[in-house]
Amino acid sequence: MLADTNKNEKHVYDANLDSHSDLQRFFEADNLVVATRFFRNAALFEQLGSMVIPNLLSSGLQERGTLQIWSAGCSDGRESYSLAMAARNSLDDLGYQGIAVQVRGSDLSRPQIEMARRGVYRISASDWPKLDPYRQNFEELGSAFWQIVSTIKGLVEFVVEDIIEAQMDAQFDILICSLVLLYYDPQYQREIIKKLVKAVRPAGFFHVAPVGRRWLKSQGFEPLPGSSLFFTGRTMEILA
Fold first, then answer.
1. Structural domains in the chain?
2. Backbone dihedral region for residue 168 (phi beyond 0: left; psi -120 to 50: alpha; all else: beta)
3. How far is it between the farthest Cα atoms of the chain?
4. Within 10 A of 234 (CB to CB), how many other CB atoms are there?
5. SS3 state of residue 210
6. Residue 149 near residue 136 (C-beta atoms within 8 A)
7. Phi, psi dihedrals of residue 86, rounded to the nearest 5°
């Protein structure tokens, strides 16, 4: 979804996002540099399994039966697929095979979303030490290209969307917004956070890059005890 051109100066690179804007061409460019990879932030995925999901299991996830995650600014999909793999593995290891996993990946770049939907990536030998625990989720295509298996692809939905235009009610247990805020003018970063926190369940968890953490705290979110990566708005005692 493209941004309203009447909302001026909200992005760092351009005043608007109409079809002829510099920022739109930047996001649509084939040579866009993508700062992502599978399981890029190892500590985030470790804490997802050891802290976040156990806390969610204690606060209604078992009754709802579906773990819902939003990867806002998902780029080419590797973060979204990593979240799906890690969440599925964590629930299975904890004995909750019956709880479903649904991941929503959104990004402003249509080419990146198209790549995400294909789920085919070049994986180098240096990547495999981190990916070995999840190797069963990849199918080899040859020439170092691998495809995400259908069981994992089926857990993830990808949409083209500018997060500042997203309209979401509280439904996500986990919301990940890693580097997206860097592309927005500071005056809009707070507005984006205010909008995104409305999509997080009262007992849910939010990860945002450091540039947005002061705005997250202004919305009543505090770090999960023992974690500098996940924030929560829960008022009950948190499981450490």
1. 22-115+153-232 (3.40.50.150)
2. beta
3. 51
4. 17
5. helix
6. yes
7. -65, -45
CA angle 163, 217, 202 (to 5 degrees): 70
C-beta of residue 72 within 8 angstroms of C-beta of residue 179? no
Tell me how crowded residue 20 is: count the other CB atoms within 10 A of its CB.
Answer: 8
Encode pLDDT of 74-123 as tens digits: 999 999 999 999 999 999 999 999 999 999 999 999 999 999 999 999 99
Compute the average pLDDT of residues 165-185.
86
Confidence at 31, pLDDT banded by 50, 70, 90: very low
- Ramachandran class of 105: left when φ > 0, alpha when ψ lies in -120 to 50, beta otherwise: beta
Q: Are 96 and 148 in contact (CB under 8 A)?
A: no
**What SS3 class is residue 124?**
coil
pTM reported for the whole predicted model: 0.84
* Residue-wise pLDDT tens digits, 134-154: 999 999 999 999 999 999 999
pLDDT of residue 188: 82
Contacts of residue 154, Cβ cutoff 8 Å, sequence gap at least 6: none
Which residues have a Cβ under 8 Å from the Cβ of 72 and sit 6 or more positions away? 106, 163, 166, 175, 176, 177, 180, 196
What number is the average pLDDT over the span 41-59? 95
